[in-house]
Amino acid sequence: MLTLKNIKKSYTTGEFIQVALDGVSLNFRENEFVAILGPSGSGKTTCLNVIGGLDKYDSGDLIINGKSTKEFSDSEWDSYRNNSIGFIFQSYNLIGHLDIVSNVEMGMTLSGISAKVKREKALEALGRVGLKDHVHKKPNQLSGGQMQRVAIARALANDPDIILADEPTGALDTKTSVQIMELIKEISKDKLVIMVTHNPELAQDYADRIVEFRDGNIVSDSNPLNVESKKEEYSLKKTSMSFFTALKLSAMNIKTKKGRTFLTALASSIGIIGIAVILSLSNGFDAKIAEMQEDALAEYPITISKQTQEISKEAMESRREEMKEKATGTSEYVDSDEVYLHDPSENTLIHTNNISEEYVDYIKGIDPELVDTIGYTRIASMNLLRKFDDKIEPIAFSSSDKSNSSQSSQMGAGLASYPSSTKDDSISFIEKNYDLLEGEYPKSKTDLVLIVDSKNRVDVNAMKNLGIDTTDLNSIKFKDLVGMEFKLISNNDYYEKTQFNTFMPSSDYEKMYNSDNSVTLTLSGVVRIKEEAGISLIGEGIAYSDDLTELVIERAKDSDVVQAQKDADYNVMSREAVDEETKKNLIAYFGGDETPYAIMLYPKSFENKDQVISYLDDYNENKSSDDKIVYTDLSKVLSDMTGGIMDGITIVLVAFAATSLVVSLIMVGIITYISVLERTKEIGVLRALGARKKDITRVFNAETFIIGTGSGVLGISIAWILTIPINSILYKMTELESVAKLNPVHAISLLIISVTLTMLGGWIPSKMAARKNPVEALRSE
Ligand code: ADP
Ligand code: MG
Question: What are the residue boundaries of the ABC transporter domain, all occurrences included (predicted)?
Answer without folding.
Answer: 2-240
